[in-house]
């Protein structure tokens, strides 16, 4: 079975590999027939004058790859069906009747729906006027690095174990304190669930509260990330128009009074920037209470109100525990932090905890610990106050520079972006594509809508661009709009 010349002393391969290669070749060319018994490792080692471990290693590799098999009490045999035969099995054995070609790769209906849902791009080359991006040039990097380094030095073995599913307790306490004061949210730390950004919050809420096929109201136009999370759970999304007073609740009542849930951005509607009126807030809460439905309140940037105090949250008005509140640090600090949170009614905490356990366990602990101290020491609140002043200045600078653009500008006195309505029936998607050629990033309003908008418009973010970048961006956008309207 193995002649004396098979081992080559000058061969760079180890002896077990040479033995493996020889045995495999013997099996494939038929010298060792299928089903044939081969010597035990002890006998073959004695025959070849090598260690038994050499033979064991060669046999183990052949067994792992399916060339030989060991049968207890009987010995080791060449397998009757070799691995190569599995790869060359005649296709007709798997084909359906009448099928001539292999079937195409298939996706679930939910995956197909997600492929058709717009995704906010992560192309950082086209910087002005990127939507949803905070002022990274004004973030206190050195201070944040000190908090991260301090927490890293404090780590001990228990810190390296799995953490609390709903988040680091001191961070949940800091979040509860912040939203109680700043957003008039009513909650305890036990109702706070720390997740991976707002998208993680949307995904978790949809998993816990929505069954496939159930109806969910959603603002139209609205945030595509929420649409994606709902579609991923098989929700039947009912688009509800938005006017100057926010989501048109009366339309929702006409189209789907039995909806399971409504998703909305009541304090600063994305992307139109309007706020939900008090009358509609009360109407929405009344509907949710009597219909047994839920309200998913996304409060993504409402702390950036430039005149007066920020509007109170919808959750703070809810006396019947129908509202789930979502907040994020990605748009306040920096996107890659990937920390957000939900505030859920006490009766739902156990359900959210259980679902979170099976989705991804928990959020990494180091950043949670650093953020908890960052907030407790007052740096988070100070950063928000500084950014509120900075964003107000950048908004005003963009308004002054935008006079040269063929746009009707609508800029609410809050947030991180404004709307520019296009004139002369210009296609906003074509305008956005042309702007990208000029290295300007704007969002086409129609790409955020589920139905055809009555007007074409562009979304321009101003938080992440300084005065020079704003002026340069306006000039490039003006050239792009001139070309697309020609």
Features:
486 residues; alpha/beta; 16 helices
- How are the strands ordered across the major sheet? 4-11-10-9-8-5-6-7
Describe the main β-sheet briefly.
8 strands, mixed
What is the number of strand segments? 15
Supply the CATH class of the largest domain.
Alpha Beta
CATH architecture of the largest domain: 3-Layer(aba) Sandwich
Q: Roughly what fraction of the amino acids lie in strands?
A: 5-15%
| Gyration radius, rounded | 31 Å
Distance between the termini: 82 Å
Secondary-structure content class: alpha/beta
And the CATH topology of the largest domain?
Aspartate Aminotransferase, domain 2
Name given to the CATH homologous superfamily of the largest domain: Type I PLP-dependent aspartate aminotransferase-like (Major domain)
Put simply, the count of helices is 16
Itemize the secondary structure elements and their pairings.
Elements: H1 15-28, E1 37-38, H2 41-48, H3 52-65, E2 68-71, E3 75-78, H4 83-87, H5 109-115, H6 141-154, H7 169-182, E4 192-195, H8 197-209, E5 215-220, H9 224-232, E6 236-243, E7 246-247, H10 249-255, E8 261-264, H11 278-291, E9 294-298, E10 323-328, E11 340-343, H12 349-359, H13 365-376, H14 379-401, E12 407-410, E13 417-422, H15 428-437, E14 443-444, E15 457-461, H16 467-485
Helix pairs in contact: 1-3, 2-3, 6-13, 7-13, 8-9, 8-12, 14-16, 15-16
């Amino acid at each position: 079975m193995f002649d004396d010349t098979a081992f080559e002393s000058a061969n760079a391969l180890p002896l077990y590999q040479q033995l493996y290669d020889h045995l495999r070749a013997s099996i494939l060319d038929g010298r060792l027939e299928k089903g044939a018994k081969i010597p035990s490792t002890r006998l073959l080692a004695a025959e070849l004058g090598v260690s038994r471990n050499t033979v064991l290693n060669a046999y183990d590799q052949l067994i792992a790859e399916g060339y030989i098999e060991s049968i207890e009490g009987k010995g080791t045999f060449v397998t009757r069906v070799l691995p190569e035969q599995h790869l060359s099995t005649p296709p007709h054995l798997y084909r359906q009747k009448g099928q001539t070609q292999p079937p195409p790769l298939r996706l679930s209906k939910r995956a197909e729906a997600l492929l058709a849902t717009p995704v906010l791009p992560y192309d950082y080359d086209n910087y002005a006027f990127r939507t949803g991006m905070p002022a990274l040039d004004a973030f206190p990097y050195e201070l944040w690095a000190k908090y991260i380094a301090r927490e890293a030095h404090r780590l001990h073995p228990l810190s390296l174990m799995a953490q609390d599913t709903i988040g680091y307790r001191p961070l949940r306490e800091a979040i509860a304190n912040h939203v109680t004061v700043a957003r008039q949210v009513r909650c305890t730390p036990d109702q706070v669930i720390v997740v991976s950004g707002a998208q993680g919050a949307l995904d978790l809420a949809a998993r816990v509260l929505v069954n496939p096929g159930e109806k969910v109201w959603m603002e139209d136009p609205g945030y595509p990330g929420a649409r994606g999370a709902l579609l991923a759970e098989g929700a039947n999304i009912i688009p509800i128009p938005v006017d100057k007073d926010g989501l048109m609740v009366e339309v929702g009542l006409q189209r789907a009074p039995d909806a399971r849930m409504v998703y909305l951005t009541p304090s600063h509607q994305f992307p139109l920037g309007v706020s939900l009126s008090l009358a509609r807030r009360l109407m929405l809460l009344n509907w949710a209470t009597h219909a047994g439905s839920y309200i998913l309140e996304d409060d993504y940037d409402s702390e950036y109100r430039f005149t007066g105090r920020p509007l109170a949250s919808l959750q703070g008005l809810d006396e019947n525990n129908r509202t789930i509140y979502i907040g994020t640090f990605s748009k306040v600090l920096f996107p890659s932090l990937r920390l957000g949170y939900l505030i859920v009614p006490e009766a739902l905490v156990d359900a959210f905890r259980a679902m979170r356990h099976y989705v991804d366990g928990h959020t990494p602990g180091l950043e949670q610990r650093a953020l908890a101290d960052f907030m407790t020491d007052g740096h988070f609140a100070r950063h928000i106050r500084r950014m509120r002043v900075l964003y107000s200045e950048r908004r005003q600078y963009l308004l002054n520079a935008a006079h040269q653009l063929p746009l009707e500008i609508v800029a609410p006195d809050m947030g991180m972006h404004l709307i520019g309505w296009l004139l002369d029936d210009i296609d906003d998607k074509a305008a956005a594509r042309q702007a990208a050629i000029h290295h300007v990033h704007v969002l086409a309003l129609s790409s955020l809508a589920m139905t055809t908008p009555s007007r074409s418009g562009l979304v321009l973010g101003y938080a992440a661009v300084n005065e020079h970048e704003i002026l340069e961006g306006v000039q490039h956008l003006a050239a792009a709009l001139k070309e697309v309207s020609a």
